[in-house]
Predict the structure.
Amino acid sequence: MCGIVGYIGANNAVPTLFEGLQRLEYRGYDSAGVAICGRNGMKIHKQAGRVADLVATAPKRLRGTVGIGHTRWATHGEATTVNAHPHTSGSVAIVHNGVIENAGELRAGVLANVAFATDTDSEVLAHLIAAQDGAALEDAVRAALLMVEGAYGVAVIDQRQPDRIVVARNGSPVLLGVGNGEHFVASDAAALVRYTDQVVYLDDRELAVIHADGFRTFTLDAATTTKQPVTAALTADMTGTSGHDDFMHKEIWEQPEAVHSALRGRVDHRFSTAHLGGIDLVPKDVLTLRRIKVLGCGSAYYAGMVGAQLIEELTRIPADAEAASEFRYRKPVIEADTLYVAVSQSGETYDTLAAVEEIKRKGGRVIGVVNTPGSTISRACESGVYLHAGPEISVASTKTFTSTVVVFALLALYLGRIRDMGPADGARLIGALDTLPGQIAAVLDEESRMIDVAHGLAAAADLFYIGRVRSYHVALEGAQKMKEITYLHAEAYPAAELKHGPLALIGAGTPTVVLAPDDELWDKNMASIAEIQARKGPVVVVTDCRRPVSGAERILVPATEPELQPVLLGVVLQLLAYHVARILGRDIDRPRNLAKSVTVE
Ligand code: AGP
């Protein structure tokens, strides 16, 4: 979603801002802009479209030692150059992530006499700050923020006070980068990866005033806070495509390593259990647990469904997953003996964060399963488990889906071994986890087979994905991958539900991808295939069973323990979606209308 970058120091800010904006492109955006303070005052340059367009159209003489930049993902007002950030008022320029909920009220009230240049909610902030005429910029920003309701990550400059940038955060991430005689601002450490790994994360309702040689932090109530830089675990290598055509392909191929990282140091072969140092759940707590509720959005939700099933099967603790975006609105009963698990790759998804806050407000216990260290959700949860999958840049989640399932397997192992799971069952799961990276690599080696099948699927306008129990959850994720990067219509159903409605749509032009592991439901899946084929529907079966399936394309995966089979099926579905998207010439890493990190409601 929207991205912020800022620079203050002795060098020209422009190249740093452009590079930072390019590194934030993966978050999803539709326009971009910069504000630069130089010898001749402040210059604004903004543009609808890509950062490359912004760079290409930048005036040659655009330079200055202080600047802020932004990538915008439209919420209030269309994706036009006018609505792009920065927004200005008098000598002030601001960039803003988040939503100002009382913007309408402020426009009609205290700002009634102001002529607005844009349709955005963000512009009100620029006018509110400029209205605090004569105040030090940090005081003006603080006074303005006390008048707004909503979420913000904001960076502000004033051409009359060019020795500072003021930043603030409430519900939308902002961090400072500490350099030598220079400082940076970003909404995501990835933007600063070539300049510094020393970062300071701001907390909600916290502000910072940044100069070339230092910074000071304080709260909205003007109380001084003390912040120490921490090292961001990111390198420039991690944010490149490493010879792959795009990030999605790189990240699909990184899965064997991502699974290794998720497992590293966490498997106890001796006692057939798991060590999860990040969660503070002692055996006594585990014995009192009566339920586990997993919350996440999109692919994190689907991975959570696989995880909840795994936990319930292995621990016999009732577990289910729910869309975090729905959770707080249905007045959930928060139970003291339920363990809530929030899943998020970015750690910044607003709906998931709101669910975490709601649980905490009502006294519930919530742990995180998060990929991004230091992210808002990881800090909001009492404790948690990191995926250690490394940065995921492509909008479509791939390696983090897989790593999330693996972390749930470890969680199930830990909880299960405290409850009823015996050492033999623990060892069975550990054996399967140990061989999983090699098995994923074997699936990847069959990529050419997925390319063949993708050619058949790319001609369809609608596709169905079906599976039963664990495989249904992967079917949801497979259909999601297909929709988001190919723009083909894809729906997932529990296999037995087909005949309760969607079968009416099955015909020669609507292929169905059937996830049919070699388990006790094999015959039932064959019956579903027969129903589809009787309506002339083309079938692709993804399975570890070597028995032939007449009239269907078959993609074979290695056999593993049933609880982990979803991982291998999932990798096939990623490659199918990826290659259909390539055949159709889609912008794979940046699908239309989508953002990597959805930081608004
Ligand atoms: C799927 O490919 C998307 N990236 C999306 O569904 C994503 O999983 C969802 O927006 C949640 O993001 P999070 O894991 O960062 O919380």
